[in-house]
Amino acid sequence: xxxxxxxxxxxxxxxxxxxxxxxxxxxxxxxxxxxxxxxxxxxxxxxxxxxxxxxxxxxxxxxxxxxxxxxxxxxxxxxxxxxxxxxxxxxxxxxxxxxxxxxxxxxxxxxxxxxxxxxxxxxxxxxxxxxxxxxxxxxxxxxxxxxxxxxxxxxxxxxxxxxxxxxxxxxxxxxxxxxxxxxxxxxxxxxxxxxxxxxxxxxxxxxxxxxxxxxxxxxxxxxxxxxxxxxxxxxxxxxxxxxxxxxxxxxxxxxxxxxxxxxxxxxxxxxxxxxxxxxxxxxxxxxxxxxxxxxxxxxxxxxxxxxxxxxxxxxxxxxxxxxxxxxxxxxxxxxxxxxxx
Length: 341
Description:
Blueprint: E1 8-9, E2 13-21, E3 25-32, E4 37-44, H1 46-49, H2 52-66, E5 76-82, E6 85-91, E7 95-97, H3 98-105, H4 110-129, E8 132-133, E9 142-145, E10 149-152, E11 159-160, H5 181-184, H6 191-207, H7 217-226, H8 238-247, H9 259-268, E12 271-272, E13 292-293
Parallel strand pairs: 12-13
Antiparallel strand pairs: 1-2, 2-3, 3-4, 4-6, 5-6, 7-9, 8-11, 9-10
Helix pairs in contact: 4-6, 4-9, 6-8
């Protein structure tokens, strides 16, 4: 089936403009003519639809995400199939993925990073409580809107406890750069596996690059299993450094076991930066901010932090996106980040 602006799916969803393109599908801004509201529609590509495994992943995403309701999870509204084209209807999130923010700003202030991580933890905890492991937590799947509110997207490789695996023996799921060691070894995902991915994001956001890079995805996965985590620069506060170290333990039993456990540590941490953390509570409300240890704006920064830290939020209007994978490059993005290896 040919998909283009003006295509109507399910007799009610009219595609307006293309937002993002991923490995399995395209994401469109669309209008729900029945309820008269804007939505995002993820359409599975013809090549992916012909692949039974991709189609099952797409169906899993619809089934798993549809049962999750929380302010920090992008809501799935509908699922359908038209002339062999599978599509998923989601709430339209006016924001941009964290990957684009990191591409532009290189690093984040600690309180802002902690807030984004806490928001993500709240959404992941709801998914885990429902028996759904995301298995592909990464900056491209975290949409950040005004006020640094976070929506988790793309449960395409997630797995519910009552589902059979879609992988063959020896295969792993997820993105290599954020893959927990146990997943790289082909072991089942647990809440601690998603927590590990948050540790990689935290490392990347304070250093300016990921801890493990290599020429291939396989080599990166092996590094997660065997290589020690590189030392953090002295510019990182002691509390946050301890948290990142603990979250990136190779043994999942030594990590914070749940996203809520990580959120609580972030909330009580003494951080360096210019703003207080605004952690979202389990009910989506505001949580108490941790004590903040300020440092002078003229304090020297340790070399190797990956770039100049940008304080405050951008005043730029964020592009609308519900991107399930890495967001398309922005025309004004700064080309200073390390290759993604």
